[in-house]
Write a structure and sequence with these properties.
Elements: E1 15-17, E2 19-21, E3 27-41, E4 50-56, E5 68-72, E6 77-84, E7 110-113, E8 144-147, E9 154-160, H1 166-172, E10 175-181, H2 183-189, E11 199-209, E12 215-216, E13 238-241, E14 244-245, E15 248-253, E16 255-262, E17 269-273, E18 279-284, E19 287-295, E20 297-300, E21 305-311, E22 321-326, E23 343-354, E24 377-389, E25 396-401, E26 419-426, E27 432-436, E28 440-448, H3 452-461, H4 470-475, H5 478-482, E29 487-488, E30 500-503, E31 507-514, E32 544-548, H6 551-554, E33 559-562
Parallel strand pairs: 1-5, 3-6, 5-10, 11-16, 15-23, 24-26
Antiparallel strand pairs: 2-3, 3-4, 6-8, 7-9, 9-10, 11-12, 11-13, 13-14, 16-21, 17-20, 17-22, 18-19, 18-21, 22-23, 24-25, 26-31, 27-30, 27-32, 28-29, 28-31, 32-33
The chain binds CU-O-CU linkage (C2O).
Amino acid sequence: GRLEKFVDELPDMPVLRGYGVGEGGQLVAGELTVGMYDTTWKFHRDLPATRVFAYGTSKETATVPGPTIAATRGVPTRVTWTNHLPPRHFLPWDRSLPTARPSTGVPTVVHLHGGVQQSTSDGHSMAWFTSAFASTGPHFTSPAYTYPNEQPPGNLWYHDHAMGLTRVNILAGLLGAYRVSDPEAEARLGIPSSGGEFDRNLVLFDRDFTSAGALFMNATGNNPTVHPQWQPEYFGAVLVVNGKAWPFLRVRRRRYRFRILNASNARFFKFSLSGGLRFVHVGSDSVYLAKPVVTDEFLLAPSEIADVVIDFAQTAKTAGAVVLRSDAPAPYPGDPGEKADTVAVMKFVVAREPERDPSTVPATLMARYPRPDAREAVLTRRIAMYEYTRNGTDEPTHLYLNGLAYTDPVTETPREGTSELWEVINLTDDNHPLHVHLAVFAALEQRSLRRVDDFRECMRGSASGGLGGRNDAEACGMRRHLAGGRRHAVPRQERGWKNVFKVKPSTVTTLLVRFRPLEEEEEDEVGEGRSGRFPFDVTAGPGYVYHCHILDHEDNEMMRPMKIVR
Ligand code: C2O
């Protein structure tokens, strides 16, 4: 039967403090141990308990999503990640993909998404480990990770990143929110900012369940002679917020802040609110905006984070509730002209009594971050997205970046302290949220490719079957296709520094990617005043990656290594 909506109250996940308090009251580095457990979780009043893999400080307290880690800027958090998972996975694991190959057990490795950390603590896909470290990947060194938290305040999240298994492990429940706070600077803004009743994390994903309440993932691939189980995108019919299907939240007539994370494998959300309420955006991904941006609706791709204020005092006296809804087709953007139904995500039950609201959203937020300036780029790279088919069917078998497999030699070797222009060329029909580890970037422009069909056709016939040989792209007259196409405006709330950007189909998107720490600039500072160095040896360890954050794409080779050099 169908699950009834709005019957479960929105939970808050447990909070783990990422810092300690010294004898004199000063903050000191935090030490946490967070485990991955084989346990159960109630996703809905009428669903039996569901088997999950969950993060927590013990099996009894593990949750889906996992606990929210609350870190403070400048105070390191050390987390020892431990794997208590069983010998076998309970979801399909397609061994025909490039994947972790342990002797036994479920390989896991944790990435702090949006975190600026050394690559030995970045959760490299080949640094995986199984229960009791019985089996470890070639890049495994230590399960104790250090997050320096020397980055501006904002929203991060942690999630599994094991090679070829990321989509499966996250689907099983291995994800959670992480926040870096700068208490003084944020208190000055006047927005609810310390966590607590008026400042909530909303972690969203979609899932399918069997009638017995088990997580359902199709075990037959779309092109099974190549990949027996891999599907190009996972979509579930049940929308889950903070671990509950279509929950409700009682709110007062005042402002609330919601840090909304799309933790779905592949589903995009296009959010709006009933009753004419609007979103006031204060941050995007891990960074505050310079100024707030008001929208009636906005699109959130997998792994993007929107930080918004909603003022429930604007709710009509006669309306007792506001519904958060979405109308994005899946896959996104789908066939032209196709419009998905508007569906409810969750409900806010608004109190009748008016109240005095001490919070505010100031006209200026964090205005001292450097402005994106294309002139600081030291070089331009082209990153092409291409989908491959085989066996004469139209069903994709894998996706590559620049026609290269994940294991092909590193081609992206940015120099520490510099910025680069990345022209991302999307020759597929899907919108791909591109994510770069370590860096932040700004989307400078997005343009339609000219005569994209000719371009695609030419590439299809080229030697590597894709953009692998950049020569192929040149031979196909790439420049002609890149220049002068229709311009797509970058949404105003996405014009700051981000770590994920939605690359629309048949477009070329120019990103200014910054391989130096993001810091506030002093009034009198001229340009490159600082060293541009990271607070750790950024060249050490196995290096970083960039990838499409549709998890099913990432797992089937839409990911490439990246090494930072000095
Ligand atoms: Cu959110 Cu490479 O990851």
